[in-house]
Structures are given as C-alpha cells and as structure tokens.
Write a structure and sequence with these properties.
The chain has 303 residues and is α+β, with helices and mostly antiparallel strands. It is built from 13 helices and 14 strands. Bound molecules: flavin-adenine dinucleotide. The site of flavin-adenine dinucleotide (FAD) has 29 residues, from β2, α3, α8, α9 and β10.
C-alpha cells in the first residue's frame, strides 16, 4: 500500500503481516452497526470492502478491538437519481462505478476517474463509501467529490446529515465524520448540457496510487468559462482546490495566455508534499503540466 503501508514512513522496525486479535460482528442494518459501535468498550471500526482496513491491520498500523462488518447492509446499496442529484450508496463497489450507465450519464467525471482506481481485484471489493470515509489524499474519488462539491451523507443510527465535500476532508485520513457515523451515501449534482470535465493522473505504473492528479469540473456559456473547480490530489494531507488558478480562468475562453496565467497562479498557491518518489518541486511541475493538458481538453470540449 501507499503511505500507511510503508514501514519506513511509520518508523516500524520489522514489517508485521498479521493483525492483532479482534472481535468481529456482522451488522444487518445501520442501527445494528451503530449499536455495536456504541457498545464496544475499546476501539471499533466499520468493515466495508476491507481493501484498506485489513492491510492496515495486518501491518499493525491499526489494531481495533472490534470489526463491525457493514458489507451486508442493504440500505447502503444502490445508485439512483434523486432530484438534481445522483445518489451513490456507500457499498457501491469501485467496479460498479466504472460500469454504471447512470454514473456515465450524470457524473461523467466519476466515470473518468474510476479506471484509475487500483486494479480490477481491488475494484471488485473496494467500496465507494470506504474510499470517501478513509480519505486517502492520493485517492481519486475524494478529489472528484471535491471538484463537484458533492455532499456526503452521514448516519449515526438516529439521524442523517449532509456535509459538503469542501468541509469533509479535514486532514490526513481525517474527516468531518464522527467515529460512530457511517458514510451512507454521496450525492453528486447531475451534469448539465454546458458542463465539461477532465480527469488525469500520473503514476509510475497503471493502478498505482497517483504521484499527482487533477479532477476538473467547469461550466461554460458559449465558449467562455462561467465557473470552474480544480481539485488536485496526492499533493498533501487532503485533496485540495486550486482556488487562485480557478479564479484566473473564470470568464476566459481558456486561451493559451489564460492557461499560462493559471499555471502561475497554481505555482503561487500550491506547496505540494514531498516523499520518497518525488520532491515538492517535481510534484508542482507535474501538477502544472497536468493542469495545462486538462485545460486544453476542456477548451476542445471534453465532456
Ligand atoms: C494494492 C492496493 C492499491 C490501491 N490503489 C488505490 C488507488 O489507486 N486509488 C484509490 O482510491 N484506492 C486504492 N486502494 C484502496 C481501495 O480503493 C479501497 O477499497 C478503499 O480505499 C477503501 O474502501 P473499502 O471498502 O475497501 O474500505 P475498508 O478497507 O473496509 O475501510 C477503510 C476505512 O474506512 C472505514 N469505512 C469503510 N466504509 C465506511 C463507511 N461506509 N462509513 C464509515 N466508515 C467506513 C473503515 O472503518 C476503515 O477505517 C488500493 C488498495 C490496495 C490494497
């Protein structure tokens, strides 16, 4: 795995490949799951696809006392149109996001991002809600949620609340959800006729976590930009919005000079993290190259 699984990042002496002891319970409903969570004397964790959690446990980066399996809860399933939104249930697998006609039609940016998430074996098990709840800063779906300002639905067994993606991703693996709250679904605004989208990332090998990536959503009137949101991922502790670069582009036709000005604005607002793969300067350079490429695609009418 990426940072959390890299022993040198965490100062672990010997890599451990077996989880410490834990209790397991399978929940049949959200209220069941929440009751189990509240009743646990120690640390409890919800288990969805297990593609991040079990690896972290095997490496002893996490050692919950109780795993509450939420993967059989029917009320967490389903993709449906609700008013102006597409609601994606938390248990939707990455592979379903990739193949869903509803996602392709109403949230094309998500459909564009899905092939970049890991490998088929992981996409067959990993869940959409798990990716949002885990909030890995190098993950594709949180960045798409930020670019589209999706709303994340949280359920504490008694009531549900919606949190805008801008307010949800707070710090490294830290979100606005209380530990007991379950991510039950995510609401994405359905794309309109004047919306254009672009997604791309750079990784050493296809399926690896990105070194850097961009997810861009723009609304045009005629050929000019009405509004644009540029989300970058794998640049720091959370996915981030490039607000200054976006401001430079509003009311332009994405001419070459406008794009160059956006790249300068990005350099002024972004201080990417560095790691064993690349320096901060290289990451910024790659982000700038991606931004330019994506803006060209938008200008040409990418959907
Ligand atoms: C080799 C490998 C490569 C990967 N590459 C990528 C990649 O390129 N891009 C990418 O985005 N991901 C990647 N992943 C991670 C993968 O996408 C995971 O599926 C995802 O991050 C977590 O989803 P999950 O359902 O497996 O969650 P789990 O592993 O079950 O849970 C992860 C965390 O989220 C919590 N959680 C899960 N669901 C909920 C919920 N509904 N409400 C509240 N809390 C919840 C759990 O308690 C746990 O803390 C990779 C994983 C592996 C093993």
């Amino acid at each position: 795995m990426r940072p959390i699984g890299h022993k040198s990042d965490r100062g672990l002496g010997e890599a451990t490949l077996k989880a410490s002891n834990f209790a397991y319970v399978r929940a049949r409903s959200i209220s069941d799951a929440v009751a189990a969570f509240r009743g646990c004397g120690g640390e409890a964790r919800y288990l969805a696809g297990g593609q991040s959690l079990l690896a972290a446990m095997n490496l002893r980066l996490l050692a919950p006392d109780l795993l509450i399996d939420i993967s059989q809860i029917d009320e967490l399933r389903g993709i449906e149109r609700r008013g102006d939104d597409l609601r994606i249930g938390a248990l939707t697998r990455h592979a379903e996001v990739l193949t869903s006609p509803l996602v392709a039609e109403h949230v094309p940016l998500l459909a564009a991002a899905a092939p970049w998430v890991a490998h088929p074996a992981i996409r067959n098990k990993g869940t959409f809600g798990g990716s949002i709840a885990f909030a890995d800063p190098a993950s594709e779906f949180p960045a798409v949620a930020l670019a589209l300002n999706a709303r994340i639905e949280l359920d504490n067994g008694e009531q549900r609340r919606l949190v805008a993606a801008e307010d949800f991703f707070r710090d490294l693996y830290e979100t606005a959800a209380a530990p007991v709250e379950i991510v039950s679904a995510v609401y994405f605004p359905a794309a309109g006729a004047n919306d254009r989208f672009a997604f791309d990332e750079l990784a050493r090998r296809r399926g690896d976590y990105a070194i850097v990536g961009t997810a861009i959503a723009a609304r045009f009137s005629s050929e000019a930009v009405d509004s644009i949101r540029i989300a970058l991922f794998s640049v720091g502790a959370t996915p981030v919005l490039a607000r200054d670069a976006a401001a430079v582009l509003e009311r332009t036709r994405l001419g070459d000079d406008d794009i160059a000005a956006a790249q300068r604005a990005l350099a002024g607002e972004l201080s990417p993290s560095e790691d064993a793969q690349v320096s901060s300067e290289t990451r910024l350079h790659l982000a700038s190259v991606l931004l330019k490429r994506q803006l060209h695609k938008l200008r040409e009418g990418a959907r």
